[in-house]
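Following up on my earlier thread - several people asked me to post the actual chain instead of describing it. Fair enough. Here it is, all 132 residues.
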Amino acid sequence: MMRYIVLLLLSFSLHANVDARYKQLTESLRCVVCQNQNLADSNAELAMDLKKLIREQLQAGKTDAEIEAFMVARYGEFVKYQPSFSGLNMVLWLLPVLCLGLLIFLWSRKNKSTDTPKITAEQLSQAEHLLK
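Reply from S.P.:
Thanks for posting it. Predicted structure:
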């Protein structure tokens, strides 16, 4: 009898763990149809199918990383709300900052007057005469 109680409690614990992982995964993955909603909040047909697929993979014993890798392989890095940091992503994040810096630099160079006026000898002598 005690064995069945332990198994029942263990079953509840595993079920709660699967539910927590399911919730975390569906909230961290983007609906590819809605694009600005996570899978948990989306009611699109594809989102429903993907939620069912995630549940099946969790019950089959797949890890969160395996499920996420499957989704990325199928739908690309876009499916993740927090894409992994890679060289391409770094360029995409830094490009606007670099462009803004370049624009500020060019604007400041354009507005900076580097040409000093040339004074002729006659103007210099007139200035000296006025200062005396």
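Helices lie at 2-28, 45-59, 64-75, 87-111, 121-131. That should answer part of your original question.
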